[in-house]
Model the fold of this input.
Amino acid sequence: MLSDPLLRPYARQYLEAIASPRPTADVDRVRDLIEALLPTGRCSLQQVAHSLGVDRKTVHRHLATAGETFSSVLGATRRQLAQRYVGHQNRPLTQVAELLGFSTLSTFSRWFRNEFGSSARAWRAAHHRDQVRTRAAPAPDDPAGPHPSTTPP
Done:
C-alpha cells in the first residue's frame, strides 16, 4: 500500500491518527484505575501515576488535554459507582462504602448526602420504587394499557 504514491499520504495520516495518544483514552485509563484502586483505600493521583508508570505531572497534563482533572474524574467515577452499588438492594451500605474507598460508613453517608441530596437509604428506596413503577407501567403504545375513554378526567 505504501508503494502506491497516491495512497501514501492517506496511509501516513491513518497511521499517525492511530499512533497518537487520544485524550479520551487517557481519561478512560485513569477512570479504570480509579475504579480498581477505590476499594483498596489507596486511590490517589500518586498511585494512579505509579500504576501507569508515569509522573503525576504527566497524568495531570493528559487529563488537562481532555478538559479534566484527577479530582473531576475521581468524583464522576465515584458518583457513577455509588449509583450502581446503592441501586443494588442486596448490597449492604457498609460494603458500598468500602468499595468506594471510604474508611467509615458515616464518611460515606455524609459524602452521599452532599452528592445526591438524600441519604443512601432514602435514595435506594426511591430508586427501587421507580424501578417497580417502570416495570409495572404499560408502554404508551401497549394495547393492554388504559383506553382513553376509560381513564378518569
Notes: The chain has a mean pLDDT of 83. The first helix runs from residue 8 to 19. Helices lie at 8-19, 23-37, 45-52, 56-65, 70-87, 93-99, 105-116, 120-136. DSSP finds eight helices and no strands in the chain.
